[in-house]
Amino acid sequence: MPRRNRIRSEFPIRILIVVLLAAVCQRATGTGQEPANGEKTQPTSKRVQDKEWWPTRRDASRGDFVGTDACAVCHKEKVEQQQKTPMAHAAWKASDTAVLRSKAAMSNSTAPFETEVRRDRKGSTYTVARGGDAMTGQILWSMGDATMGQTFVLQSGGSLYESQLSYFKAIDGLDLTPGHTRSSPRDLEHAFGLSQSAETAEQCFGCHTTASTVRGRFDEARATPGVTCEACHGPGAQHVKAMQDKQDEVGKGAMLDPRTFGPVKLVDYCGACHRAPLDVIAAKDFLPINVRFQPYRLSKSRCWSRPDQRITCIACHNPHEDLVRDTSFYDAKCVACHASRQDDSAQATEGSAAVDKPAVCKVSTRNCVSCHMPKYTVPQMHGSFTDHDIRVVRAGDPYPL
C-alpha cells in the first residue's frame, strides 16, 4: 500500500506524518495492551502449527472434508443462516459472479494503459493494452462478497495474478486494487496485475475459500467458494462418522469449538483471516488502512488489557448470522460491561461472581459505537470501516495506528 494513501474520518481529524512515524515506532514492539492474566497473543503462523484445527491450516486431506450438506443434516438452521453471511460469499467462481454476469463489458482508461473486462460464451476475460501490445487472462475467481467490491484472480500463461484493478460497487466500475501502487506500472505485466507466488495464493484462497490447500498442495480448481462450516470448525468427516455411530463425545471432540477459548486466543482465531495483532505488526501494516483489521484494532482497546471474556469478536457478532448494521443493536453489548447510571459503582454482581463494570458513558447510553467506535472512510476502497479500537474519541485526535 503506498505510503501517501490517507484515510478520512467522519470526525474532523488530521493525520500528520510526524504522528504516523511516531506511532509506527511505538507500535513496532507490541499491540499496545498486554493482557493482565498473562495470556499472550500469537501470530497465525505459529497457531497453525498446533495440533488442533486453526483457520487457514493446510494439512488436512481432501477426504477429511464432507461439505455443508453433511453439516446441515443436524445443523440445518445454522447452516442456512451462515450461508447468507458475507463470509460465506467471500469468494465466487467467475461464472457465478453477479457483476460479471450482469455486465458484458467494463473498462478503465489510465494512461497509457487501457483495461477491459469482457464476458462472452466462454467466460470472462481481463485485458490490458498499451499501443499495439496487450496481455489477456481468464478470470477464474472474484474475491469479496461484493458489499464493497471484488478483486479478480486471473490466469495467464499458466500463472495466477491478482488483478491490478478491482470492481467497486460505490462507483459501479473499476479502480485500483487496494495494496497496488497507483504510480504508472513499468510494463504491461505490472499493469495487468500482481503475479501470485504459491505461498501468496495459498494465503489468499485460505481465507476466501474452503479446502483450497490439502496435504500442503494448493488446488484452487477444487476449492469450495467462501468460508464454510469446515473452514472454521475443521474438517467434519470424523465428526459425522462418530455422531452416526452414536459416539457423541468423540464426535464433539473432533470439531473445533472456539467458544472454549480464552479471549486472547479467540481474537487470534478470528485474526487468522481478519489479521491477528502480531500478524499486523509482522507485516508492518502501520497505515490508516489497517482500520479493516478488526482483531488488531480490538487488541488496542484499553479494555483489552483485563482481559474480559466479553471483549471478543463473538461477544458482539454471531459468525453464523449476517452482520447487524444498526448501531443501537450494540448498546446492550456495551451496557453488559459498563454499569448503568443507577449502578455506576465499580462493582456489580453477575451470578455469584463479582464482575468489574466500568462506569457508563456520561454523554449518552444510546448508539454507543457511533462515538466510541467511529467509522473511517478508506478512499482507496471506496467505503468505510468501523474502528474496533474502543476508546474515547475527541475532535482533532489523530487516527491511532
Question: What's this entry about, in short?
Answer:
The chain is built from 15 helices and 19 strands. The protein is an alpha+beta fold and 401 residues long.
Q: Uncertain runs with pLDDT below 50, 5 residues or more?
A: 1-6, 8-30, 344-354
Q: Would you tell me the overall average pLDDT? A: 88
> How many E-type strands?
19
Question: What's the quaternary structure here?
Answer: single chain
The tally of structural domains comes to: 3
Taking the alpha carbons of the first and last residues, their distance comes to 15 Å
Name the overall outline: globular
Q: Report the biggest beta sheet as strand number plus sense, adding barrel if it closes.
A: 10 strands, antiparallel
Strand content: 15-25%
Helical content band: 25-40%
Rg from Cα: 23 Å
- Which class best fits the helix and strand makeup? alpha+beta
Number of helices: 15
Would you give an account of this structure?
This protein is α+β, with helices and mostly antiparallel strands and 401 residues long. The protein folds into 3 domains: 8-40 and 263-386, no CATH class; 62-89 and 204-253, no CATH class; 91-195. Helix content is 28%, strand content 21%. It is built from 15 helices and 19 strands. The strands form 5 sheets. Strands 2, 3, 4, 5, 6, 7, 8, 9, 10 and 11 form a 10-stranded antiparallel beta sheet that branches. The chain has a 3-stranded antiparallel beta sheet with strand order 1-18-19, with no helix packed on it. A hairpin with a 2-residue loop joins strand 7 and strand 8. The longest helix has 15 residues, at 68-82. Residues 1-6, 8-30 and 344-354 have low confidence and may be disordered.
